[in-house]
Design goal:
heterotrimer; A mainly alpha; B mainly alpha; C alpha+beta; A: mainly alpha; MetI-like fold; two-stranded antiparallel sheet; 14 helices; 2 strands; C: alpha+beta; Rossmann fold; OB fold (Dihydrolipoamide Acetyltransferase, E2P); 2 domains; 6-stranded mixed β-sheet; 4-stranded antiparallel β-sheet; 8 helices
C-alpha cells in the first residue's frame, strides 16, 4: 500500500545507497565468481590450451574416474568424521568446566582460545617441530616414558590423525566459545530449581544443561563440518598430501588442479563437488538436529 | 545445604585438575618452541631436551632480521590487514545500518542474498576469482590481496545485528532534532557502535593477517608475499634441517604480534565469535 | 483557534487498521491527553504527528500549515520518548545542543536557552554528565529539557512516566502541569493511565481500536461518558454494568428492572429511547448506597485506607462493587442491602452508545 507523508520507516530508493557499496562487492566478487565457477565446471578450459568449449559433464566424469580425487574425497570425509566429534565433545567439556564465575577460569580460556589466533603457517611450523621423529617434543615425551619415537607424519595410518590433532589444538577455541555463550544463556533459576529438586550433578547435566543448549550443539557441529571440509593449509604444509596421498584433502586437489596444472574447468568442477558435499552435510545435520528436537 | 556445597566443590576440584592438565598440554608446544628458539642450532642438532639449561643465544632472531625479505612480508601483511580492516568497517557499517534501520525497495530480498552468501566457501569461488583478477592484471598487487575478502558477509551481518539492538527512539529523537539521515548515521549511530566496530575490526585484522589460500595463489612474487605465505615458502623440506632453532625463532617472530594483539583485545575477539552471526 | 488539526487521518499496518478515519482539533496552548488501552493506536497517532510514521491517508496541520508532507525535524514539534532516547555518548549539554546546532543557532543563544531550561528543570549541575550517570528521574528532566530548548509549537509526550516509580511519577505529573502553565505551548501526552489523564489534561481524547471514543474535559468524560467503553475505562473501580430486564415509564423518566428484581429510576427521559433496544445500566461504586434496598452477599473486601471496596453478589448471581468508608466493619458472607442512586446512573444501548436526555 502506497503511503503519503514521510515516516522514517518509509521505503526510499536513496536508502539503498547505504548498502550499495557492499552489494556491488558482493555481486562482483562473490556472486559473479560463483556463477562463473559453476559455468566453468562444464567447460573445457585450461590456462595453457585456452577455452575449448562446453563439455557437459565430462569434467565431473573425469573426477569420478580420477583415483586421486576419489582419494581426496575419502580423506576429507575421514578428516571431518575425526575432527567434528572431537570439537563437539572437547569443546563442550571445556565450556562446562570453565563456565563458572566462581573459578578464575579467565586464564584457562585465554590459553584454549589463544592458539586459534595463530596463522596456519605458524601452527604447522610448531607442530612439524613437535612431530620431528628424533628431536620433536612428542619424541621427547615418549622418551621420558621409555617409548621409542614414532614418525607420525610419514605413516599412512597416523598422518591424517596427526593433522586432526593439530587442527583440534589450533581451533578448539571456536566451539568452546560458542558453547560458553550457549551455557550463559541458560537462566540460573533453572539450576536453582534443579537444586531444590535434589538433582545431582549428572542429572542436572543431562536433564537441564544439555537439553538447554541442544541448538548450540547442532550449530557447532554444522559449523565444524563446514570448516573441516575446507582442510587445506595443515595438510599442504605438514604432509604435502602424503604419504601416498593418504592425507591429500579436496581443497589441495582443487589448488593443484587449478593453480599448478592450470586446468580451470576441472578445478572448478572439483570446487562444485566440495561445495555440494558441504551443503549436503550441513543440511543433513540441521535436519537431524530438528528431528531430534521434534 | 552445606553438604551439597562441599560435594560440589570436590567434583569441581577434580574437573579443574583435569582442565589444568589439559591446558598444560595445550601450552606445551608453544613453550617448547619459544624456549628452544633461544638455543644454538648446534646444540639442538643433538638434543632438544632441557629448555631451561644454557647455553642460550639470540642468534636465531638475528638471523631472521638478516633475512631481509621478512620485513617486506611483514609490511605487506600490515598494509593488507589494515586496508582490509578499514574498508570492512566502513562498508559493513554502512550496509549493516542500511539493512537494520532503513527501508528501500528490495531490501528483504537483498538481505536474504547476503545471508545465503554466508554459505559460500572461499574454495567455491577461488578458481574463477583468480581468473578474473588475472584478466584484470591485478595479481601481485595490494588491491588483489585486500579486495576479495570484503565480499564475505560476516561483517555486514554482525553490524546489522548490532544496529538492530540500538533503540530506534534515539535515531528518531535525532531526526526530530533536524539531523539528516546521513548525520544520524555519522553523529549518532557510528559513535554508539564503537564496541561493535572494535570487535569487527580486530576480527577482520586477524583474519587478514592469517589468511593463507588467497594470498598463496594471488601473490606469486616473493616481494608481494604476506608474512603467512612467506613463512610457508621458507619451511618446505625441513625434516633434514640443521637449523630448527632458526625455524622456531621464525614461528615466535611471526606469532608474537597476533598473540600480543590477542592478549590486549581478547574480549573483542571472543565476542565476535560468540555473538556473531555464526550463532 | 485550532492549533493542531488532524483531518481524516488513517493508517494501516498490513491488514490491520491502526487508525481509522480520525479527525481531531486541538486548540492552541492546550494540554491534550490521548488515553486508551495498549494497541488502541494512540502512540501511532502521536508518531504520525511527529513524522516518525507515515500517513495512510488524511492531513495534519499545525499552526495553520500542513505538516504531514514535511520532514520530522521541520515540523516544529519536540518529542519526549518513553525511554527518553537521550544520546548516550553525549553529555546533557550536548544532548540539548544537538538540535539547536543542526539549525545553526548562534552559540550565545544556545547557551542562553540551555541555561534557561536548566534553571527551569533544576538540572544545572548535571549539564556535563552523560546519561548513564543520571537517575531515571534526572534523565526524564533532561529529555524534557532537550524538548524545551527547541521552543516547539507542540510538545509530544509518549508515555514518558511509565518508567518512573510511583512516587516520582506523581511528582512529575505535578511538574509537567506546572511546566505547561509556564510555557503555554500545545502539549500532547499519550498514556494508558487514567490517573495521568485525569490529573494533567485540559482535554482527554479517549481512543479505542483506532477510533476516538470521546473528546472532553476530564469531568465531562467521567460524568457523561459517551460510550460504554469510556464509562468502563475511566474510573477506579470500573463502573458496574448490569443488564436491564425490563423498562417502564414514570413521570417521563425511564425506570429499569434489574435481573434480581430491583428497580432503578434513571434520569434518562423516555423520549431518548429507541423502542425494542436491549439496554445496560451503568453505575459507579460511589453511587451505590448501603443500608436499604436490594439484598446482596459480600464476597470480597478490598481495603484502600480512606475507603473500602466491597464486591457483593446480587440475588441473580451478578457481581456488583460499591464503596464503604475506610473503617467499615464488615465480613465476607454478610448480607447487605444496596440502593442504587438512579439519578447518577447511565444507560447504554446494544451498540454501547450512551442514552442521554
Amino acid at each position: 500500500m502506497a503511503e503519503v507523508g514521510s515516516g522514517i520507516g518509509q521505503s526510499r530508493w536513496t536508502n539503498a545507497l547505504f548498502v550499495a557499496p557492499y552489494m556491488l562487492i558482493l555481486f562482483g566478487l562473490l556472486i559473479v565468481p560463483l556463477c562463473l565457477g559453476i559455468w566453468l565446471a562444464f567447460q573445457d578450459y585450461d590456462m595453457l590450451g585456452g577455452w575449448a568449449g562446453g563439455v557437459g559433464l565430462e569434467n565431473f566424469q573425469n573426477l569420478l574416474d580420477d583415483r586421486i580425487f576419489r582419494g581426496t574425497v575419502r580423506n576429507t570425509i575421514k578428516f571431518v568424521l575425526m575432527t567434528t566429534p572431537a570439537f563437539v565433545v572437547l569443546g563442550l567439556f571445556l565450556a562446562l568446566a570453565l563456565n563458572n564465575a566462581l573459578r578464575r577460569s579467565g586464564i584457562l580460556r585465554t590459553i584454549f582460545f589463544g592458539s586459534s589466533v595463530l596463522s596456519v603457517t605458524i601452527v604447522t611450523l610448531v607442530w612439524r617441530l613437535v612431530y620431528l621423529p628424533d628431536r620433536g617434543l612428542l619424541a621427547n615425551a615418549l622418551g621420558l616414558l621409555g617409548l621409542p619415537g614414532v614418525d607420525l607424519v610419514t605413516s599412512q595410518v597416523w598422518a591424517l590423525p596427526a593433522i586432526a590433532i593439530v587442527t583440534v589444538w589450533w581451533i578448539i577455541g571456536l566451539p568452546m566459545t560458542l558453547f560458553l555463550a550457549g551455557l550463559q544463556q541458560i537462566p540460573p533459576e533453572l539450576y536453582e530449581a534443579a537444586a531444590l529438586d535434589n538433582a545431582g550433578r549428572w542429572r542436572t547435566l543431562t536433564g537441564i544443561t544439555l537439553p538447554s543448549i541442544r541448538r548450540t550443539i547442532v550449530v557447532v557441529a554444522v559449523i565444524e563440518v563446514i570448516l573441516q571440509f575446507q582442510l587445506f593449509g595443515q595438510a599442504l604444509l605438514i604432509t604435502g598430501g602424503g604419504p601416498d596421498n593418504t592425507t591429500r584433502p579436496m581443497v589441495q586437489f582443487i589448488y593443484e588442479a587449478g593453480f599448478r596444472d592450470l586446468q580451470l574447468g576441472f578445478a572448478a568442477a572439483a570446487s562444485q563437488v566440495l561445495f555440494a558435499l558441504m551443503l549436503i552435510a550441513a543440511l543433513a545435520q540441521f535436519w537431524a538436529g530438528r528431528r531430534q528436537g521434534a | 545445604m552445606r553438604t551439597w556445597q562441599r560435594g560440589r566443590s570436590l567434583g569441581d576440584r577434580l574437573l579443574l585438575a583435569a582442565v589444568v592438565a589439559l591446558a598444560v598440554v595445550w601450552l606445551a608446544p608453544i613453550i617448547w618452541v619459544v624456549g628452544l628458539s633461544f638455543k644454538p642450532n648446534e646444540v639442538l642438532m643433538h638434543s632438544t631436551g632441557g629448555i631451561l639449561t644454557p647455553p642460550f643465544t639470540l642468534k636465531n632472531y638475528v638471523d631472521i632480521l638478516a633475512a631481509s625479505s621478512v620485513f617486506g612480508w611483514m609490511l605487506n601483511s600490515t598494509i593488507v590487514a589494515f586496508g582490509q580492516t578499514i574498508l570492512t568497517l566502513l562498508i559493513a557499517s554502512l550496509a549493516g545500518y542500511g539493512f537494520a534501520r532503513t527501508n528501500f525497495p528490495g531490501r528483504n530480498a537483498l538481505f536474504v542474498l547476503v545471508l545465503a552468501a554466508l554459505a559460500v566457501p572461499e574454495q567455491a569461488i577461488i578458481v574463477p576469482l583468480h581468473t578474473m583478477f588475472a584478466a584484470a592484471d591485478l595479481h601481485n598487487t595490494y588491491t588483489a590481496l585486500i579486495v576479495p575478502r570484503l565480499a564475505f558477509p560476516f561483517g555486514v551481518l554482525l553490524m546489522t545485528q548490532y544496529f538492530r539492538a540500538i533503540p530506534p527512539e534515539i535515531e528518531e529523537a535525532a531526526l526530530l532534532d533536524r539531523a539528516s539521515r546521513l548525520k544520524v548515521f555519522f553523529r549518532i549511530v557510528l559513535p554508539l557502535s564503537i564496541p561493535a566496530q572494535a570487535t569487527l575490526g580486530i576480527y577482520t585484522f586477524l583474519h587478514a593477517w592469517n589468511d593463507y589460500f588467497w594470498p598463496l595463489v594471488s601473490a606469486t612474487k616473493p616481494a608481494m608475499y604476506t608474512l603467512t605465505v612467506g613463512l610457508a615458502s621458507m619451511q618446505t623440506n625441513f625434516a633434514q634441517t640443521e637449523g630448527i632453532g632458526f625455524l622456531m625463532a621464525q614461528a615466535v617472530f611471526a606469532g608474537l604480534p597476533v598473540l600480543i594483539l590477542y592478549l590486549f583485545f581478547q574480549r573483542h575477539i571472543v565476542s565476535a565469535v560468540a555473538g556473531g552471526p555464526l550463532k | 483557534m485550532a492549533d493542531l488539526s488532524l483531518r481524516h487521518v488513517s493508517k494501516r499496518f498490513g491488514q490491520l487498521d491502526v487508525i481509522r478515519d480520525l479527525s481531531l482539533e486541538i486548540p492552541s496552548g492546550e494540554f491534550a491527553v490521548f488515553l486508551g488501552p495498549s494497541g488502541c493506536g494512540k502512540s501511532t497517532l502521536l508518531r504520525m504527528i511527529a513524522g516518525l510514521e507515515g500517513l495512510g491517508g488524511g492531513e495534519i496541520h499545525l499552526g495553520g500549515a500542513r505538516i504531514d508532507t514535511i520532514a520530522p525535524g521541520d515540523r516544529g514539534v519536540a518529542m519526549v520518548f518513553q525511554h527518553y532516547a537521550l544520546y548516550p555518548h553525549m553529555t546533557v549539554r550536548q544532548n540539548m545542543e544537538f538540535g539547536l546546532r543542526n539549525i545553526a543557532t548562534p552559540q550565545p543563544e544556545i547557551d542562553r536557552k540551555i541555561a534557561d531550561a536548566a534553571e527551569m528543570l533544576e538540572i544545572g549541575e548535571l549539564l556535563e554528565r552523560k546519561p548513564a550517570q543520571l537517575s531515571g528521574g534526572q534523565r526524564q528532566r533532561v529529555a524534557i529539557g532537550r524538548a524545551i530548548v527547541k521552543q516547539p509549537r507542540a510538545f509530544l509526550f509518549d508515555e514518558p512516566l511509565s518508567n518512573l516509580d510511583a512516587a516520582l511519577r506523581s511528582r512529575t505529573r505535578i511538574e509537567l502541569a506546572r511546566l505547561h502553565h509556564r510555557v503555554q505551548s500545545t502539549m500532547i501526552f499519550v498514556t494508558h493511565d487514567q490517573v495521568e489523564a485525569m490529573t494533567m489534561a485540559n482535554r482527554i481524547v479517549v481512543m479505542n481500536q483506532g477510533r476516538i471514543e470521546q473528546v472532553g474535559t476530564p469531568m465531562e468524560i467521567y460524568q457523561r461518558p459517551r460510550t460504554r467503553f469510556v464509562a468502563g475505562f475511566i474510573g477506579a473501580p470500573a463502573m458496574n454494568f448490569l443488564p436491564v430486564a425490563a423498562i417502564r415509564e414514570e413521570a417521563g423518566r425511564v425506570v429499569v428492572t434489574l435481573p434480581d428484581g430491583s428497580t432503578v429510576t434513571t434520569a434518562v427521559p423516555t423520549t431518548a429511547l429507541r423502542p425494542g433496544a436491549a439496554l445496560t445500566l451503568g453505575v459507579r461504586a460511589e453511587h451505590i448506597n448501603p443500608g436499604a434496598g436490594t439484598p446482596a452477599r459480600v464476597e470480597v473486601i478490598e481495603r484502600l485506607g480512606e475507603r473500602t471496596l466491597v464486591y457483593a453478589n446480587l440475588a441473580d448471581g451478578s457481581t456488583i462493587v460499591y464503596d464503604e468508608p475506610g473503617d467499615v466493619v464488615l465480613a465476607v458472607g454478610a448480607t447487605v442491602h444496596l440502593a442504587i442512586d438512579g439519578a447518577a446512573t447511565h444507560l447504554f444501548d446494544a451498540e454501547g452508545m450512551a442514552v442521554h436526555g
